[in-house]
Amino acid sequence: MAKPLIVDDEWLDRIAGxxxxxxxxxxxxxxxxxxxxxxxxxxRKRYESGASRGAKVSAGxxxxxxxxxxxxxx
Length: 74
Hints:
The chain is α+β, with helices and mostly antiparallel strands.
């Protein structure tokens, strides 16, 4: 028979903290013998495409947009 889950205020605070600043992702709570023993957070970062969404790169930036692969004959 399963043991009743024990969740104290410390775990509730931890879980709330992990969820509060997550925009996209999941939180997996691992329970062992009726107690939370681990929390796994997987967060996704979503980026919109650059120029069409108003992304700006300054002229002196080290990270200016460039092609990852050269196209054309080799």
